[in-house]
Amino acid sequence: MTDRELMGMAREASYNAYVPYSRFAVGAAIECSDGSVYTGCNVENAALGSTICAERTACVKAVSEGKRSFKRIAIYADSENWCTPCGSCRQFLAEFSPEMEVLCAKAGSRYVSYKLSDLMPHIFNY
Ligand code: THU
Question: Which residues form ligand 1's pocket by a CB distance below 6 Å?
Fold first, then answer.
């Protein structure tokens, strides 16, 4: 699967975002080491702190299907800025694959790529 195909899946997933509060729809597609892909969107809640980001939705879907090793995640939002993962999602993803690639899009078809360990060095672990 190409980066663009993975990002296309993230974009599709963003259409399911439940975002009545922020109106900021995000989609993610995580590629596992076995080549399978799981998608997710952000799911907000009236208790705002209970909101779940798109990246964590995708990751939890994968882990709950027995996947624990990831190659890439694509993150899409129709936004002005690159949609980079929040700090909680960085820590959450790094639990499983700190060296995974993180593709971050913005409005249009452009994206940037980072290594997760560059975005989130020195993760908490014990
Ligand atoms: N959000 C994500 O889903 N992923 C990110 O990388 C950044 C933020 C969501 C959380 C909330 O529903 C909305 O975007 C605005 O913060």
Answer: 19, 22, 24, 26, 42, 44, 51, 53-55, 75, 83, 85-86, 89
